[in-house]
Amino acid sequence: MNKRYNRVRATDIELKDRLVAVNRVTKVTKGGRHFSFAAIVVVGNENGVIGQGLGKANEVADAIAKGIEDAKKNLIKVPVMKGTIPHEQEGKFGGARVFLKPAAPGTGVIAGGAMRAVLESVGVKNILAKSKGSSNPHNVVKATIDALTKMRDPISVAKQRGISLEKVFNG
Questions:
Q1: pTM, two decimal places
Q2: Could you give the strand order of the β-sheet that contains 127-133, starting from the edge strand earlier in sequence?
Q3: Pairing relation of β-strands 109-110 and 127-133?
Q4: Total count of domains within the chain
């Protein structure tokens, strides 16, 4: 990930982890089949901090533990306002494309599997989300995080444009 994202230290905050997907992988050897597991995990504090990780091991529990450790190493901060996102945003990674749209209070999280885990971990309560293209959980998670990292809060927009916060909202 690029340096421009707001990095966060894992030691500073209380994180909750969510398992997105577990994949059983087989290696065929001379002696037969050898099974191992790959786990995609998302961690977040449900208040604007999110991280994603991949863990691989011979046992499911070990793969999940490794995934959580990996996720804690790449945490980022994203703007969450009043339980939703500040504006519409598209994200992409590999063949996965995602579209996020803010929603009114009471809407809930309208999103599919891998996206739902990311959005709930980051603390979004109301959102409309659409996943287009590849449904591969690895890429959908990364595309969703890509969309969230492109988000800009009104304060940073006002600062960049050199105008007051009221003018950002009123046009």
A1: 0.88
A2: 89-93, 96-102, 127-133, 109-110
A3: parallel
A4: 2
